[in-house]
Amino acid sequence: MEPLYWKPEPRRYPPYLRRWITRGRGIGRGSAYRPWLTVRDVPSRGTSFKIAGIKIKRVFQVFSEQEATYLFLSERNPKVVDIRENWPILDIDWTLQACKAVSGMGKTTFISSFLLGYPQIIRHTQYHGRKLKCHQIVYLVLRVPHDATLKSLCLQFFDKVDHLLGTNYLRQARGLRQIAPMVHLMNQVATATSLGFIVIDDIQNLRSAKGGTLK
């Protein structure tokens, strides 16, 4: 059996986590995996789905259209051998170490190799038999800028989107003087393009930046 990055021993964790661990949540692989959270555990007025798997014969619990899109792509990716949604990250020390790992440890190479199996843009031409012209961005890869400012990260986001779609969001963003409307525009663009997920690399720049303000 493959190793876990966290040990499913209830006594190691706070009481509010123990009941989930004793129920076998977040443990197993393939069709035997039980997600840490289910749709029933998180009542919401938002979008959530229970989707029957094709490659992995079990019901998947997803909490957004973006998660559902990522699941569909993963199920059809021949390089993916297992899918574990809502996987718990309980070993905080390991998580921080992975996020703050020094440059040169292969994180960027791993990310690039992982993303090779997915199209970055999906060009939709029809929906339920009707013509539709829509470009969906599956993922974006951003890097924490050396100055570690939110403004620089936002501008990088718009530059990436413009490069993919031929839009002019970067020019529009530069015309905004405050960071709040820039973040709001970023949210609008992500929604309009049905952005699946964002990968943020070079987290170590948060430590090396002097007076960095990105959080």
Number of domains: 2
Radius of gyration (Å): 20 Å
Q: How many beta-strand elements?
A: 6
Structural class: alpha+beta
Give the neighbour order of strands across the main sheet. Answer: 1-2
Give the helices and strands as they follow along the chain: HEEHHHEEEHHHEH
Multimeric state: single chain
Overall outline: globular
Mean pLDDT: 81
Low-confidence stretches: none
How would you describe the overall organization of this protein?
The protein is of the alpha+beta class. 35% of the residues lie in helices and 15% in strands. The chain contains 8 helices and 6 strands. The chain has helices spanning 15-22, 65-75, 92-99, 107-115, 150-165, 169-174, 179-192, 205-208, and strands spanning 49-52, 59-62, 121-127, 130-137, 139-143, 197-201. Strand 3 (121-127) and strand 4 form a beta hairpin. The radius of gyration is 20 Å and the shape is globular.
Quick summary of this structure?
The protein is α+β, with helices and mostly antiparallel strands and about 220 residues long. The chain has two domains: about 10-95, 3-Layer(aba) Sandwich (Trna Endonuclease, Chain: A, domain 1); about 100-210, no CATH class. The chain has helices at about 15-20, 65-75, 90-100, 105-115, 150-165, 170-175, 180-190, 205-210; strands at about 50, 60, 120-125, 130-135, 140-145, 195-200.
